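Issue 218. Parser rejects a valid record. Input:
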Amino acid sequence: RMKEKSKSIAVLDREGGLSQSEFLELTNRNNLFTNVSISCLQAVRELQFSGRFDEAQVIIEKVVEDTNSQSEKLVGYILLAELLNKWGSCMPSYTIDVMERASLFADRAVVLCEDMISSHAASEFNDINEILCSSLYWKALNLASVGRLGGCETWSTKLAFDEADKAFSYMSSIWKSSRDNDLRHIQGSMSFVKGIISFCRAIALEKGYLQSSECEGRNTNELKAESLAQFKSAYDSFFSVYGSLHNQTVKAITMICVCCKMCGDRDEALHWSEEEVKARIKLHGEWHPRTKLAKETLQELKGGKEEEEPEQEDVQEISPLDFPPERMTLEIDPFELKDVETLRSAMRMFADLGVVERFNIPKHNLARFVLSVKNSYFDVNPFHNWRHAWSVSLASFIIMTQTSASRLLTPVEKIATLITCLCHDLFHPGVNSDFLIKSAAPMALEFPAPNVLEHMHWNATKKLLQSGSDCDILINANEDEKQKVLDLVHEGIMATDMHTHHRVVDGLTKRIQTAQSKTTNVASPAEAAYDAEEEEDRRELMRVIVHASDLSGQSLPREVAYTFGRGVLEEFHNQSMRERMESLPQTAFMQGLHDPLAQAKAQLGFLHYVLQPLWQKLSTLLPELEAQYLRVVERLDEIDFDNLESWQGRHDGLKG
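Output the parser choked on:
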């Protein structure tokens, strides 16, 4: 039943096939930055959780010393200088141990970079001077923090500031000679570093670590005012280049707020604190450690008064019986439902699966669970939002109730599948794990690489279901059953990583062969392929259902498929723009998606190479899903590179 290839697909074949291949193959994701980033993140995570600096130092040294590549060492040194700075800034206060190590790595990066330049061994980098500036940037910031904390064994307070000044001057001289046509971002970075050095000097002077004579006769108030002026200058530069939702802009906002607070200007500090909280929530989400610190600062400035909780739906008013059973169909448009309808229908999924009765789930707990899940998705995400999670859950529900899978899975697997689908993208930040690793995001420090997001989603799900929580829908399950469900949910969420796709499709191929080899009469191909008495068979089927449901968007009615497709394109485009603005290695298949042809190639490639084989094989085992497979084929047939004007699935709102 596989369709004959179109001319447009032939074009993709000639160009190498699926452009998103690194999306599916874990081995294809790795590059110089990603490899070293993962190692550094793992090392810093060990330091973070153990608190044993001596042991962590051995681990960190091993990361960069185990390679013979100078380029990898250089990237490792810079990343560790940055990571340790970020980790320290997420703590209630910096520690001298962390900042001394951060400074040492930055210093090593500068020395190695200079050696590579002098020996002409920097061919792997497009602009080695930019790498040198990055090393000097972190050296200046980290040494200023060392001075602020009173110095250390390697650098006294005065020496730390002297070296920070030298690093700043060196960096400035390189940047001032830059041929970059737009120097605003360079000016912003220079102002920010200068502001940090003045700010740290003010703290050191205030605490008695420095004398006024060591600060060119300036007093604390003068240094604070100087730092505030520099941070405002940095903000103006960054805002003019990047806008408000960028890490550099938000860092400047943070420091303006801190300086205003130190200078006693409470009203101004309150204004900037509110701006910081809004920006960090939109940029990073509620989970980000710096978002939490920003909210604490705002609460303190407001006099310790708790922020009012947004009005939420009354859980007593949410009942599955209020959602008609005839509407539980894949023909429904998730974007036309009211929020309360999505909650009622989600509860109905549990009820109609029979698991509410089987596990004696209290209505209050179920209502709190689905409401908490909904509120754990960010509406700002074009694709990874509550409507996606709800739609994925509905697809799994339909498969488990209207196909022969209903006779193969036990109640334990059914409830685990539904929980997995509802929770599989909790707190998704709108970027992928590779971006979090490359940008050294705090989330990548907290959860293991390379599957940072999947580990985070599972951690959030586990918290919702922990004993004592009013969201615990497994409260009345016996201990063994609850653990089995949790194990399956963990397995299911981890399996949503796209690198499992080929394994799922290959598994379906083998199951089809098994079904075709059997001569005994069975009720359906799936029941010939999977043995309901074998736990591993049921677990594999559950993983298939979760994966297919996660990729069900293009199997839905035309307009729904278009909306989900545009959401994916927009999210990829947004990540690509952030990678470019933050000078990160760019993800190839996310670039240029403002161009309709690039959109068409990305969408057609995913439909042909990924979705069509999956749904063709799944509908062979579960013939009840034939209509979904045919819809995937319809979406595929609509894309003609020679007639893009007729393709209604394109996204006309993306700007280059």
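Fixed in the parser; the record now loads. The chain is about 65% helix and 0% strand.
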